[in-house]
Design a protein that fits this description.
Elements lengths: L6 E2 L4 E2 L4 E2 L4 E2 L3 E3 L4 E2 L4 E2 L2 E4 L4 E2 L4 E2 L14 E4 L4 E2 L4 E2 L9 E4 L4 E2 L4 E2 L4 E2 L4 E2 L4 E2 L4 E2 L4 E2 L4 E2 L4 E2 L4 E2 L4 E2 L7 E4 L4 E5 L1 H6 L4 H14 L5 H6 L3 H4 L2 H12 L10 H15 L1
Parallel strand pairs: 1-4, 2-5, 3-6, 4-7, 5-8, 6-9, 7-10, 8-11, 9-12, 10-13, 11-14, 12-15, 13-16, 14-17, 15-18, 16-19, 17-20, 18-21, 19-22, 20-23, 21-24, 22-25, 24-26
Antiparallel strand pairs: 26-27
């Protein structure tokens, strides 16, 4: 149902069974696919394409110009997949010319209240951004990651799949897949053991990942340590994802353990796995 007070440009492409609530505004270059629900007081503009079965709550804003001083009004876009939820006051900006011109959001993600997704970000699938998470430009967040409330993610950062970021963390360096990272300026606090359990990863695989983690981060020469992993560790699929992540962009800083957290983590891990 389209509420009579909603303002929808005649050029917008709205599929069947889309609900648009009171006082929402939809611009001329917007496409919205079937069974998406737009609550009241939502603003969707720019070159924005939204898939099926999304839900966008009051006062969310999607498609307004990026907060980048280099932006000069280029026709850049946002592409959103299916089954996402954008809670109140969430803001998503389109890409910029310097970043490829597109912001991409996959499927089945939850953006809680006051989240901000800046220009040129790639948000994959099944991700949770808790309340007030601020994602800088050009950030990539991989499948099944969870980002705790009030985190700030620095531009160009990467967060690997199934990683967990603790609340109020400032993310300045990349977080490996399956990693647990937290702190005012993030350090690595081990593997995301609870997330691995929830994902159905076996105890044997977790122990192999743990051994690889210990080897990789036993000192500051972690990139060299990756190359020195034995074949048993390298052949594990989960370890391979960590290796590929670290080697994908050697110019990017990688989050590494703080010494005190490092010792505490291994004591807890031994208790958890035995």
């Amino acid at each position: 149902m389209i509420h009579p007070t909603a303002i929808i440009d005649d050029k917008a492409k709205i599929a069947n069974n889309v609900d648009v609530g009171a006082f929402s505004v939809i611009g001329p270059n917007v496409e919205i696919d079937e069974n998406t629900k737009i609550h009241s007081h939502v603003n969707i503009t720019g070159y924005t394409k939204i898939g099926k079965k999304n839900e966008i709550f009051p006062f969310a804003s999607i498609g307004t110009p990026p907060q980048d001083l280099k932006y000069k009004g280029e026709k850049n876009s946002i592409v959103i997949g299916d089954n996402n939820k954008f809670r109140e006051y969430t803001n998503v900006n389109p890409g910029t010319e310097q970043g490829g011109g597109i912001t991409k959001i996959g499927n089945s993600n939850l953006f809680m209240v006051y989240c901000h997704v800046a220009h040129d970000c790639i948000i994959q699938n099944n991700i949770v951004l808790a309340n007030n998470v601020q994602v800088g430009g050009h950030v990539t967040i991989e499948n099944n990651a969870i980002v705790g409330g009030s985190c700030a993610i620095h531009q160009f950062s990467r967060i690997g799949e199934n990683a967990m970021i603790g609340g109020m963390t400032g993310v300045l360096s990349d977080v490996i897949p399956y990693g647990l990272s937290l702190g005012n300026r993030n350090s690595l606090s081990g593997l995301n053991l609870i997330g691995l359990r929830r994902a159905g990863v076996s105890n044997n695989d977790i122990k192999i990942m743990q051994k690889a983690y210990e080897t990789i981060f036993e000192n500051s020469e972690f990139r060299k340590n990756v190359d020195n992993l034995n074949s048993e560790l390298k052949e594990n699929n989960y370890v391979q994802k960590i290796i590929n992540f670290i080697n994908a962009d050697k110019k990017r800083p990688i989050s590494i353990p703080a010494t005190i957290k490092w010792l505490v983590y291994f004591l807890v891990t031994e208790i958890y796995l035995n």
